[in-house]
Automatic annotation (TrEMBL), chain A:
Its main location: nucleus. It holds the Pfam family Sld5. Residues 35-139 form the GINS subunit domain. GO terms for biological process: DNA replication; double-strand break repair via break-induced replication. It is found in: Nucleus. InterPro entries: GINS_A, GINS_bundle-like_dom_sf, GINS_Psf2, PSF2_N. Keywords: DNA replication, Nucleus. This is GINS complex subunit 2.
From TrEMBL, chain B:
CDD domains: GINS_A_Sld5, GINS_B_Sld5. It is found in: Chromosome; Nucleus. The gene is Gins4. One of its GO terms (biological process) is double-strand break repair via break-induced replication. It comes from Chunga burmeisteri. Its main location: nucleus. Belongs to the GINS4/SLD5 family. This is DNA replication complex GINS protein SLD5.
Length: 155, 214
């Protein structure tokens, strides 16, 4: 893609991977995103705890950004420790909700779910387990019904 | 646009090209079956990488730009390799079914194997059959000396669940609950929404690019 222009002293937007790399080489300072602020994150965490459903997150990559920025650029982020705790709390609440939904999805043999406010990180953290569990359940159930075309091998 | 079956002239910006590669990669990763091969994307990406490498060779060494472009090249190359490797794993896993599907393909239907992949699959199949014969089959009693790989190798499970994001709005997608007592219902897929659903129902939408597996 296109980048720059890079002028000393002036902030410029770059892809995350480049930002982390340049920071590691001590060539720059990173500016945290607007939402990475204690008050905003407290609001977000409280809202998530209050609602039963998933609330929209300030960034579809909030977890990845928090982890990477706090790991590599915590010196550029005010109140880094508080931020880390707040984001973790929000994440924990959301994952707990996800586990409940996944459990009821499997039990009630749902065929479809809409997951608009989930971020990719959350989906992929529990996703593989969920889809494999659903797969196993499906195989077990279809084998209970004789005469159905189950995926058995005929020799 | 019209496809002449030969080479399609895709006019994409480099950013769009890489985006297409990423989409193809993710779809291939999460789909249970081997998807259509995308020779145009692969060709263009390889060309793009060659172009970038040539530029790098010409640049001043030690320039910050050089290391940045080098990183970008490596990142793109990783996605491309991962995509191709994912396909090879599926080809090896579902070998007889992949070959059968390709052989029984209708004239205008797109290919699921690139010419190179097709050659690889045929050779792999022949080697597997020879191996099975030499190691075990020829030592079996005469009436058990044949094995049908097509019947014994499991097919991809198209009933598995996948996560997807909607790129183009779709209406009236059928959802079939497993139990017969529950009636089937339809849903609309709004652009930008995310869903968990069985692969079989939405397989054509993946092929057409209307949804993206995630």
């Amino acid at each position: 893609g296109d980048l720059g222009p890079f002028n000393p002293g002036l902030p410029v937007e770059v892809p995350l991977w480049l930002a982390i790399n340049l920071k590691q080489r001590q060539k720059c300072r990173l500016i945290p995103p607007e939402w990475m602020d204690v008050e905003k994150l407290e609001e977000i965490r409280d809202r998530e705890r209050k609602e039963d459903t998933f609330t929209p997150m300030p960034s579809p990559y909030y977890m990845e950004l928090t982890k990477l920025l706090l790991n590599y650029a915590s010196d550029n982020i005010p109140k880094a420790d508080e931020i880390r705790t707040l984001v973790k709390d929000t994440w924990d609440t959301r994952i707990a909700k996800l586990r409940l939904s996944a459990d009821s999805f499997v039990r009630q043999q749902e065929a479809h779910a809409k997951l608009d406010n989930l971020t990719l990180m959350e989906i992929n953290t529990t996703g593989t387990f969920l889809t494999q569990a659903l797969d196993h359940m499906y195989k077990l159930r279809t084998n209970l019904q004789p005469g159905e075309s189950a995926h058995s091998q005929d020799f | 646009g019209d496809s002449d079956g030969g080479s399609e002239d895709l006019v994409l910006t480099p950013a769009q090209l890489i985006r297409s590669l990423e989409q193809a990669w993710l779809n291939e990763k999460f789909a249970p079956e081997l998807l259509e091969s995308k020779p145009e994307i692969i060709e263009c990406v390889v060309e793009q990488l060659d172009h970038m490498e040539a530029n790098l060779k010409r640049s001043k060494k030690g320039d910050l730009k050089v290391s940045i472009h080098h990183m970008e090249i490596e990142r793109i190359r990783y996605v491309l390799s991962s995509y191709l490797r994912c396909r090879l794993v599926k080809i090896e896993k579902f070998l007889p079914h992949v070959l059968e599907k390709e052989k029984s393909r209708a004239e205008g239907e797109p290919s699921i194997l690139s010419p190179e992949e097709f050659a690889f699959a045929k050779e792999y199949m022949a080697n597997t059959e020879t191996y099975l014969k030499n190691v075990a089959l020829k030592h079996m009693p005469p009436n058990l000396q044949k094995v049908s790989l097509l019947k014994s190798v499991p097919k991809p499970n198209l009933d598995c669940f996948v996560f997807l994001r909607v790129l183009e709005r779709q209406e009236n997608i059928l959802v079939e609950p497993e139990m017969d007592e529950e009636r089937e219902y339809t849903i609309d897929l709004e652009e930008g929404s995310q869903h968990l659903i069985r692969y079989k129902t939405i397989a054509p939408l993946v092929a057409s690019g209307a949804v993206q597996l995630i």
